[in-house]
Amino acid sequence: MAEAVDYKAIGTSPVRPDGVDKVTGRAQYGADLNLPGQIYGKVLRSPHAHARILKIDTSRALALPGVYGVITGQDFPEAEGGEIGGEGGGDVSDLAKNIMARDKVLYHGHAVAAVAAKSLSVAQAALDAISVEYEVLAPVLDLESAMAPGATLIDPSCFTKNLPEKPTAPSNIAAVMKLGRGNVEEGFAQADVIVEGEYRIPMAHQGYIEPHACIASCNEQGQATVWCCTQGHFEFRAMTAKVLRMHIADLKFIASEIGGGFGGKTVIYLEPLAVMLSRKSRRPVKMAMTREEVFRATGPTSGTLARIRVGARKDGTLTAATAWLAYEAGAYAGAPMGPGAMTVFAPYILPNFAVEAFDVLLNKPKVAAYRAPGAPQSMYAMECAMDELAERLGMDPIDLRLKNAAEEGTQAPYGPKFPAIGLKACLNAAKAHPNYTRPLPAGAGRGMAVGFWFNVGMQSSAEVHINEDGTVTIVEGSPDIGGSRASMALMASETLGIPYERIKVIIGDTESAGFSNVTGGSRTTFATGMAVIRACEDIIAQCKSRAASTWGIDADQVDWRDGAAIPAPGVNAALKPLALADIAAGAPKTGGPLLGRASLNAQGAGAGFSVNLADIRVDPETGKVDVLSFTAIQDAGKAIHPAYVEGQMQGGAVQGLGWALNEEYIYDANGVMQNAGFLDYRMPVASDLPMIDTVIVEVPNPTHPYGVRGVGETPIVAPLATAANAVSRATGVRMRDLPLSPPRVLEALEAAGR
Q: Does position 48 have pLDDT exceeding 70, yes or no?
């Protein structure tokens, strides 16, 4: 078993290999690259949230000196239909219309034209010279209005998918999803206590520090090279090819370093525009969004309306639960209702349940993934209901969850049975933690909640090159966001038996690395790591074969230990070990260069569970909320690089607390975002937070050679409910709507007469 192995490299926390370049400024991010002869692209965006485009006149812009090209929706080829796939989801045709509006604009900030000019100032002048005539339409800005009978239609061609019968009329409900098991009515009839409530979670942004940026250069044959900040350059290449009706082989994508993504950089926005403008101007075109553009025109996460009903016996045994979940998709279909429905009840043994989820169009930006997309919203509602149920039953909230906790063999709500999982281990660690056992600070409330993410595998490739001196270069195609270079090197070090310092990891472009899916879904260390391990095993097999050839024995008489080929027990003991460096040096005489490779569609991603604890104090005079302590506990399977795992847990906690306490998109009646900048979109800063305490639980994932189950998504799921439960217990008023900003908390206290 993995937990019984005494690892040498895995479980250590060496300095990240890209760290020095990043802190010294040498690392090249999306907007850092400059090419000879480059010009600059900018985008004209709609001032309306919902309007028909009657006419676009670009003649004055084209006449300006220094303007090399202008494009509108009319310049795009008719996009093919079909699913996009990946974390973003949706349809290719919708993706194309989101990149550049055609006959209608569907949100404030929707792109309607783009220009390329010799300077940014000339490009801005060209945008000012473009004339657009609109017929302004009423915007649809909230879920109830969008779902109501007779609602203004955002897309008259949208007919709800997944209904039992094909609908006869269009709707703003793009799709529905249902999950269920058992008999809900009988389950509630068995309950002694039933809790139900309605919960609202706002639209929020991922908050990555680096805006979207790219540079594209087309040659005379129409082939393009694109440098961009992305979580998945292979999928960016595929999406761009589909939108522009190009052959994939005619596009080369190079991933720059990336200043954060969290799911928000799994979608293309500028890349097709830069390619088209480069093609028109015959020059490299550089494009970068402003922070305001990021807020107005890229994908936040869905605002959500959730209705939960949960029943339990007096001893705390859950008997039934229902969830009604409506997710804002924004202007085009693709809200994460599926993951939300899959995760809402996943931590618990529930004999009877029903989930109904909706993907709903509104006049807001098309949503994108945000760290465990869909799960924080749905599980916020369930975990708040569980806390209220614990209060009603007079039970410790951890004990209530322990009584109903999923374990190995439990059938998940979405189908499969869980293998070994660490939920109970996390709950027990929480119950024993000093932050849970110590006295509650005066005036504070203590909240807790469970988090879950199923994790994914998907496709990855890796090559392991052995250099002449025995050093190792790994080439793989997963952009490094959270330290995956170090994790790959650690797994290669452990597998090959050589020092970590002798391994270098390179993120290859789409022409120099094998295909890999997006860095997201907590898949990279699991899936790309598995490809690296298999490529290393390929190297070991080759080295054993070459050693056997050198020694004149069979390959099955050779073992590999501590980075060297050695004779197996019982074989000629006089044979001296051949280290990897020795075999590499002799490679010209034994068959040529050593190159290991692996490509796979990784199966068996281990589900991730977490438990969060928080002590929060509320000022009854102002509604101000102070987080006094926060504890993140999570099953990592096996922490390859523990410091990075802690960083993921702490980062997710901070993002979740920000979403719970302050972050939200605020729109006026015309659908114009009122807080499109970090000054008014209130994200947490260091002075807002205590030190985030962490506990790494390790219940190895049995399907991974080193027990990895992925850690990046789960940390953001539980903080929302943890914070709300703490505030509710501090005030004695059950808080259901987020964020818990001072005005909202004060309003709730005044309404309750507190």
A: yes
What DSSP element (H or E) covers 254? strand 251-255
CATH class of segment(s) 2-26+457-601? alpha beta
Question: Is the CATH number of domain 304-455+606-751 3.40.50.970?
Answer: no
* Equal fold, 2-26+457-601 vs 304-455+606-751: yes
The predicted pLDDT at position 2 comes to: 41
> Shortest CA distance to 181 belongs to which of 421, 410, 420?
410
- How does pLDDT run across 426-480, given as a tens digit for each residue? 999 999 999 999 999 999 999 999 999 999 999 999 999 999 999 999 999 999 9
**Sequence ranges of the domains in the chain:** 2-26+457-601, 39-137+209-260+265-297, 304-455+606-751
> Could you tell me the two tokens for 295?
């807020």
Residue pair 171/160 in contact by the 8 Å Cβ criterion? yes
Cα dihedral value 725, 726, 730, 735, nearest 10: -30
The candidate with the shortest Cα–Cα distance to 37, out of 282, 229, 225, is 282
Whether pLDDT at 495 is above 70: yes
Residues 490/10, Cβ–Cβ less than 8 Å: yes
Q: How far is CA 268 from CA 95, 218, 402, 585, in A?
A: 8, 18, 43, 45
Q: Which amino acid type is present at position 604?
A: G
Task: Tell me the mean pLDDT in the region 226-230.
Answer: 98
Q: For residue 441, what is the DSSP state?
A: P
What values do phi and psi take at 353, rounded to 5?
Answer: -155, 160
Buried b (16+ CB within 10 A) or exposed e, 213-236: bbbbbbeeeeebbbbbbbbbbbbb
- DSSP class of residue 534 equals H
Whether 606 contacts 453, CB under 8 Å: no
Report the 10 Å Cβ neighbour count for 192: 14
Query: Is residue 278 within a helix (H) or strand (E), and if so which, with residue range?
Result: helix 271-281
Tens digits of residue pLDDT in 134-169: 999 999 999 999 999 999 999 999 999 999 999 999
- Alpha helices by DSSP H, listed for 302-413, are 337-343, 375-393, 397-404
pLDDT at residue 618 greater than cutoff 60: yes
Q: What residue spans of 568-687 are helical by DSSP H?
A: 580-585, 587-590, 642-661
d(CA 394, CA 164): 42
Q: What is the DSSP string of 545-568?
A: HHHHHHHTS-GGGEEEETTEEEEP
> Distances from the Cα of 707 to the Cαs of 1, 162, 650, in angstroms?
9, 37, 22
Distance CA 754, CA 125 (A): 56
724, pLDDT greater than 50:
yes
CATH 3.90.1170.50 fits 39-137+209-260+265-297, yes or no: yes
pLDDT of 194 above 60: yes
Neighbours of 752 (CB within 10 A): 11
DSSP codes of every residue in 12-76 = --PPPTTHHHHHHT-S-BTTT---TT-EEEEEEE-SSSSEEEEEEE-HHHHHSTTEEEEEEGGGS
| Rounded distance between C-alpha atoms, residue 406 and residue 414, angstroms | 13
| pLDDT at 1 > cutoff 50 | no
